[in-house]
């Protein structure tokens, strides 16, 4: 895949950063171009049989190194402009490799586009393109073919812009949501370094426990509510799902609340400092009511997003984010609540955000799906609980992997730990982009499955993958352009700045894969296949890439080794999830969506 290929070029062959950046962008554009041209120029391969889907998509999408070989001349000429004659000395072997790959790709295209009588060679694809007698354009006039191509092109572009417009407010909402905690840490941290460490540690623990229920458990609403909104004859079914979510996720939250209340002995057992353990337990105990408000706020957002209403979360957080800063300052400094002022302010902000969303749904948009409180919500909880649990595992397996990396970085020394803190802070902000795309995609795919639009659902899933790669390429370019100065925002120590600049290329490299992970994960949630995402995460992170990264970190690679492992894992996750989406039988997914609705209503 792209990631491992470029990783080898960057680490083993010592390709410069500028070359790596240009190569990645060119390859991404090539893949997106090929995918769109396939959908426009041929009968829709997404809805064809699995055999045809493989014959179209594997050569074009799952083997992008062939695209790299086919287009190596363009890449090479661009890089030659940057480095001049030195490139010829550095990459003689590379030119030969790319030339051979180019021949492979030329032969592949000949075998696909040539006549059926072409003699096979060692480069001939084993899965050939269907013959002309199978082509869906055989009995269509050239004028009709042209019209259909133009209509398909318009549909793809329309879907692209719809997803882009839908994901922007979602991304902004999650960014503002993260800012609530960031502001709390900054304000409390000015009291003392100990309070800074306590608040940051407590909120990190909250993220991998309660926030995981909020962001992972509510994916059950992504699956059930989006298809119910368009597929159910009774719009009030969506309101019943919301009530079911309140009940199920409240039950999921109970053990977390108990854990927070008894956190001190847990932290001591994990070897944490006694003072940090005591203060963090007090912080989390005060945050227990607010944690439930956070979960309910997420549920209300998903209830509205299932109806295609994406903006209210952003509007609400534009109000509560500055209010949270004011409350935190008042509680900590004016009312002399010290450290405990922050969790109280956060709790009030989360409950206020939930209340404002309820008012928005009641008086502005979203009330037509609410039929009032009913005991029916307490029936048939199994489907919702199963999807919620799998969603938590899906989200949690990725988050836990990054927390393990943070713990491993702490054993590398003070400077690597400081650089890791800078990188993790940036990654948490950047992760809102693929996560936002995934939320918009899950709602869109679920809506289209509920309306029995198989072609539209397949198109939306694949266009979302393209959109996420475009956004990932933009983030990659920004990170690479600012990597030498990025750490100065957080720390002025030259050692931290230098180490951060060395590691950031690996973080930048996986932004495209992280985008695929977010968008394809959203498509899987829209199809109700959270278990696939959870399984892919478990295998990719914990059965290879994460242990490899830890091994590299303590065998000469340092902090870079940890992020090499994360980079490999994310490319595996992105590639495997996209393959699952591409090979999905969308007619069966429609049937399963309606079966889930029947299970929930009977």
Automatic annotation (TrEMBL):
NCBIfam families: matE. PANTHER family: MULTIDRUG RESISTANCE PROTEIN. It is found in: Membrane. This is Polysaccharide biosynthesis protein C-terminal domain-containing protein. Belongs to the multi antimicrobial extrusion (MATE) (TC 2.A.66.1) family. Keywords: Membrane, Transmembrane, Transmembrane helix. It holds the Pfam family MatE. The keyword Transmembrane helix applies. CDD domains: MATE_eukaryotic (cd13132). It is a multi-pass membrane protein. One of its GO terms (biological process) is xenobiotic detoxification by transmembrane export across the plasma membrane. The chain crosses the membrane at residues 6-32, 200-225, 246-268, 280-297, 317-336, 342-363, 384-402, 460-480, 534-557, 563-586. InterPro entries: MATE_euk, MATE_fam. The lineage of its organism: Eukaryota, Fungi, Dikarya, Ascomycota, Pezizomycotina. The keyword Ribonucleoprotein does not apply. One of its GO terms (cellular component) is membrane. One of its GO terms (molecular function) is antiporter activity.
